[in-house]
Amino acid sequence: MPRLDVRIKTNLRARAVYATGPEQREEVVTIRELSLNGALVDQLRGHPDQTLTLLTELSPARQIRLQGDLVRRSGTKGSAVHFYYSDRNTTSALWHYISAQLQQQSTSHCPYCGNEGNAAEGQCGQCRQSLAFQDADYLDVHLLETLAARIQSRIPKLNADHCHKIIKYIDRELLNLQDRSTDQEFVGTCPTMLRVFSMINKVAGTDLNVLILGESGTGKELTARAIHQRSPRMDKPFVAFNCAAIPEGLLEAELFGYQRGSFTGAVDTKKGKFELADGGTIFLDEIGDLSPHLQAKLLRFLEDRIVERIGSKRGHRVDVRIIAATNCDIHQRLENGGFRDDLFFRLNAFCIKLPPLRERGGDKVVLARYIFRKISETGHFTPQGFSEEALKAISRHDWPGNVRELINKIRRAMVMAGSDLLEPADLELEPPAPTVAPTDLHRQVSKSKKEIVLAALEENNYVIARTARSLGISRPSLYSMMKKFKIEH
Ligand SMILES: Nc1ncnc2c1ncn2[C@@H]1O[C@H](COP(=O)(O)OP(=O)(O)OP(=O)(O)O)[C@@H](O)[C@H]1O
């Protein structure tokens, strides 16, 4: 690992663009000394005649902009300036360029003791100073090692406004930190979830409609909230609406609102969900279940953004971002005409696909531990953790109800278990399947989701709420599974 206190004498010249106030200045500078402690401490003097323009070698986006980061040091010879580069690309590009230049300059003499040495060897043969400053990961490692100290040193200079901005930045940029309004964290460490986090971060700042696909309980609503909370609409309402949870006849009134007296029972004028979400985001869950009539109405709304309450002759313009989600096979619905192409294209401006929990590898255990900790915080429970066997069972299980099923199983186990560690039986997880004869294996393999749902329904006397709870899924999800598997209620 390169030492952090390395200093190198140099005569590199660079053109620096910086600003001390609203005005931006450009200056040709001579870098007299490079201090490899993360910041470049440069002795600056103009030598326009010998300009070695670093900047022209870099793309415009990477040009060194030191706005606001420039600190002038008084009392030193000439004008000495600390350069702090907060932008990683700029720093790395600059770093590699300078490293290459220095290597060329110092292949015969050590910059510390002046003796013959070779910088490319990584260490001076005489004074043993580390010269491996060109390590590709130097800056990243150094930044990580010194981040806490850098923040610490700046804390006394922060005021409430700075703190507010920093917290806002952290909330927006780092998904796995605490979610302010719901006190929920979005947990995920597997590559697919990291990709999802990155997509959320990218799309949040835009105003694109988003379509979220994923099985029930995979975190579609959590994703929609995460997008909203990182978007410029974050301080405006987030309205979640499940299109499958409300009888068809009431859906239109719920979404678009109604005028007093427009139908029997409309004793008061009521705003619909779109109006309630004005300025913010509306999350339309189970969008695949919308009737053709409502699909047409939603499409019209997407085109002109005008909401017309039932019974009203006047429309209101509404500014709302739409995030839709479904757990059905929307492409199949498109093929068989169950969902309109034109509406799909409107909603699908940006698509995020959430992987089922069974495909998230080590995240099953990471999530289990997180959920355990969260539930532990809500009261006093006997179990203090999971047994090794329980963790293995969690990893092995397929989790058809995804994260919701995991939450329900852990919550139930924590209430019921009497010992210190949760065992597979407490979680109602089957022990590993014994080595089975081929016929048994065949039976195991063909044990489909449909059979699991049927068994749960029978066990719970076809009481939907109870069956959904036992499967760890929502009622609408159970209904849509029953529809999909053609199971009569
Ligand atoms: N990655 C995650 N980290 C932490 N909690 C999660 C995660 N994914 C889901 N959850 C939690 O699991 C539960 C179900 O998530 P959510 O309601 O977002 O799923 P969904 O896909 O919208 O389900 P449905 O389709 O059944 O409505 C919620 O309590 C949510 O907070």
Automatic annotation (TrEMBL):
SUPFAM superfamilies: Homeodomain-like, P-loop containing nucleoside triphosphate hydrolases. The keyword Nucleotide-binding applies. This is Sigma 54-interacting transcriptional regulator. It comes from the Bacteria. Residues 186-415 form the Sigma-54 factor interaction domain. InterPro entries: AAA+_ATPase, AAA_lid_NorR, Homeodomain-like_sf, HTH_Fis, P-loop_NTPase, Sigma_54_int, Sigma_54_int_dom_ATP-bd_2, Sigma_54_int_dom_CS. Pfam families: AAA_lid_14, HTH_8, Sigma54_activat. Keywords: ATP-binding, DNA-binding, Nucleotide-binding, Transcription, Transcription regulation. It comes from Geoalkalibacter halelectricus.
